[in-house]
Structure formats: C-alpha cells, structure tokens
C-alpha cells in the first residue's frame, strides 16, 4: 500500500488514535476534579485492629463475615468492567473529562476489590479456596460463595457482549440502578457497623459510589433527550436487570438469572444472623426493602423526566412496565 504523505492520514474507526482533547463539558470536568479530590487509600484502614477483633470471635462468626465480603466481591470485582468501558470510551473518542472519570472509577473499583480481599484476609485468611469446612453446614457456606461467583462469570460474558448490542450512553445509563443500590448499601452499613474500622471502609466506599451514581446521572442527562423509544425501553429493562442482579447482596436473589444451590437462602440467612451477632451490621429484610424503594424512587424520578419508565418490581410492590423477557444476555448492571 502506498501512502500519500502529502495528505492527512486516515485513521481507522473504533481506534483509540488519534488522541484528542475537549475542554467544553464543564459538568464532566467538575466530576473528574471531585473524583481526584475524594481518593482514599484502602491500606489506611487499620486491618490489624480488625484482625484483633476477629481473633475474639468464634469460628462461625468469622466465617459469616468473610462470607459476606466474598458475596460483595462478586459485585465489586468491577475493575475489568470499568476498564473495558474505558477502552470503549477511548475508541469512541468520548469527552476528555468523561474518559477521565471512567479512569478514576476503574481505580476506585480496584480499591473496593482489594478491600474485599483485605477484609477476608483479616477475619478468615484463605477463604474460600483454602478453607477446610468442618461440617456439612460450613461446606454449604463455601459452596454458596463459589456458586455466586459462578453466576458472576455468566454476567461477565453477557457484559462483554452487551457492547456490540447497545450504544455507550444506553449502557452507562443502565449502570444507574447498580450505583444507586451500592450507594444505599454502603451508607446503611457504615451507619450500623459496630466495628469502627469497617464503618470507615463503608463510609469511604459510599463516597465513591455516590460519585459513580453522579456519573451515570451526568451521562443520562446529557444523552437521554437523543434516545429513541427502543433505547428507552432497554434502559427500563436494565433497571429491572440491576435489581435482579444486585439483589443477591442487597435483598434476596430473585428467580430470574440466578443459578444457585437449593439451600442458598437458608444458609445465607443463618450467615447474616451470625455476622450480626458479631457486631457486623447487615440490614434486616424490611430495611433492605426500604433501601430498594428509596433507590428506585430516586432513579425513577430522573428517568421519568426523560420519558423512561421504571419496570415493575412486584417483589417490592412497585408497579411499572412489565418485564417478562429478561434473559441471561441482558445482564449489564454494575456496582
Ligand atoms: Fe464498587
Ligand atoms: Fe460503583
């Protein structure tokens, strides 16, 4: 191929080259600046103090706390989720500040994931892979974790494929429900925890999740007026997908999507009670329902302004658009 160097080169589409900068989206720049300001270090949490507290707990209580963090890590394993979104945003040459915010969210999610590992390592090192169950119940607990992660693997496949099906603004708007749910979870947990260092970890995480929510809100308000009816319907569906996916940790896993052992819920409830008994705060079912309602009202109010309906969530007595054909491939929510 001969190249005519006297002309400008032609760049291939969907390529991160050429580098380009834009400085006009002030709201996105403000959010990017806030993201840089609000950074924190997971190693500033006094994990030794947590180890000390854990050493005073009995085995099953320690297992219950490690187990909860293992479930959380299913959702906070989001570094590659955002790293992938970041690559896509560069290929599509989105606004410089938007790419900057996505870079910080990728970093945030890595911090959240490392935090899950540090928490497990402080209360029950080696859980779940090096954990040796002492009875049938402990083995079921271990299997609960491993099968939750199995579903995470199914989600990851669907997530990657979603990029060939949806436009970026529809995708990013779909992240809204997850971020709203995450914000509520961490805020309530930080208020309730009796273990001071975990309180701190949750409080800091809530700051991050609030900012992630602000990001989805920004994308929504920037792009929603251009959305077609079909795209609006997709967002409604994704709000339902967000509820179904995140309910494992924030409510109870609905029938859709999840493939879990038959004992999952029973064992999960026992674990929650054991963790509560150890001063680790997990909201009761009523409180979880209330948190979801609050999150849905919040998301619903924003969506309504742009003609996007909220889905029916019969589990919470919320009426809305009936979503019947939610398939495995539809799962793209993030935490
Ligand atoms: Fe997170
Ligand atoms: Fe998040």
UniProtKB/TrEMBL annotation:
<protein>
    <recommendedName>
        <fullName>Aminobenzoate oxygenase</fullName>
    </recommendedName>
</protein>
<dbReference type="GO" id="GO:0016491">
    <property type="term" value="F:oxidoreductase activity"/>
</dbReference>
<dbReference type="InterPro" id="IPR009078">
    <property type="entry name" value="Ferritin-like_SF"/>
</dbReference>
<dbReference type="InterPro" id="IPR012348">
    <property type="entry name" value="RNR-like"/>
</dbReference>
């Amino acid at each position: 191929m001969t190249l005519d160097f006297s002309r400008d080169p032609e760049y291939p589409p969907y390529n991160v080259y050429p580098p380009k900068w834009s400085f006009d989206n002030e709201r996105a720049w403000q959010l990017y600046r806030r993201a840089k300001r609000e950074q924190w270090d997971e190693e500033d949490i006094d994990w030794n103090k947590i180890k000390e507290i854990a050493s005073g707990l009995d085995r099953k209580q320690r297992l219950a706390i490690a187990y909860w963090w293992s479930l959380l890590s299913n959702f906070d394993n989001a570094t590659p989720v955002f790293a992938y979104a970041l690559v896509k945003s560069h290929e599509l040459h989105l606004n410089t500040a938007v790419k900057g915010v996505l870079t910080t969210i990728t970093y945030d999610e890595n911090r959240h994931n490392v935090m899950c590992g540090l928490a497990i390592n402080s209360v029950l090192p080696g859980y779940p892979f090096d954990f040796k169950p002492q009875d049938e119940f402990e083995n079921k607990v271990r299997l609960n974790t491993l099968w939750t992660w199995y579903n995470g693997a199914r989600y990851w496949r669907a997530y990657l494929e979603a990029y060939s099906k949806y436009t970026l603004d529809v995708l990013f708007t779909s992240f809204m429900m997850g971020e709203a749910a995450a914000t509520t979870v961490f805020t309530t947990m930080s208020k309730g925890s009796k273990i001071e260092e975990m309180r701190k970890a949750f409080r800091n995480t809530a700051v991050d999740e609030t900012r992630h929510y602000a990001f989805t809100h920004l994308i929504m308000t920037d792009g929603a007026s251009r959305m077609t009816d079909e795209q609006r319907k997709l967002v409604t569906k994704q709000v339902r997908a967000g509820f179904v996916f995140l309910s494992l940790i924030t409510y109870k896993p609905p029938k859709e999507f999840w493939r879990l052992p038959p004992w999952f819920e029973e064992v999960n409830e026992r674990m929650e009670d054991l963790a509560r008994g150890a001063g680790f705060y997990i909201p009761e079912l009523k409180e979880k329902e209330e948190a979801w309602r609050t999150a849905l009202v919040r998301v619903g109010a924003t969506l309504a302004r742009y003609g996007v309906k909220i889905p029916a969530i019969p589990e919470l007595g919320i009426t809305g658009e009936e979503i019947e054909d939610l398939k495995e491939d539809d799962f793209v929510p993030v935490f």
